[in-house]
Amino acid sequence: MTSRSLRASGLAALVVPASLVLAACSGTGGGGPSASPSATAVGRPVTQDCDTLVPPTTFSVYGQEFERVRTPRPPADSPVAQVAAQDGRVCTWRSSVDEDATVTVAVAHLPSAQITRLEDALFEQGGSVPTYTVEGYYSLRSGTGRADAFAGPYWIHASSSLFTEPGTAQPVVDAVRRAVAPDATAPTGSPTP
């Protein structure tokens, strides 16, 4: 049995009061496990601004220009809203060609116990992406691709209708990873080499 499967099976037996930590055990309409915010944020502020996390040149791969939405409004109980509740950074860009095409990035700086819970919840659902350099996962639901990656203490979440497969999310995931943890790699024993 691998350390990941031991951790995952041990997680099921663990009962932790929600008021103390983030719990990454429940699914949401956003298509995957989510972190339920505790009464008090346990995350540390993400200091990088949106243009540092995803430089505008990153979007050239999609063949269209994007403008940043100055006041993104994440749906309640979505992974993006949960990142915001943890003092994370939330950024949304809208295509100048197709107003329905958006790219949303949310980054949280969390304690290792919460990162492990999120990793385990996503691992249980499958969708590991070995090309994200760090432990990463991808899912596609209702036409929206969701990429999650873990770079050290950072949870990187990105979603867009443009993310039709793991590789289409990679330029955004890589840009954020380089901005927050340029030396981060997947841990030994991770499903993402």
Describe this structure in words.
By secondary structure, this protein is of the alpha+beta class. About 25% of the residues lie in helices and about 25% in strands. It contains five helices and eight strands; from the N terminus they run H-E-E-H-E-H-E-E-H-E-E-E-H. The strands form two sheets. Strands 3-4-5-8-7-6 form a six-stranded antiparallel β-sheet, with helices on both faces. The protein has a two-stranded antiparallel sheet with strand order 1-2. Helix 1 packs across helix 4. The chain is globular and about 40 Å long. It starts with a helix and ends in a 13-residue tail after the last helix.
Q: Average pLDDT across residues? A: 79
| Low-pLDDT residue spans | 1-39
Report the C-alpha radius of gyration, rounded: 16 Å
Q: Which percent range describes the beta-strand content?
A: 25-35%
Helical segment tally?
A: 5
Separation of termini?
18 Å
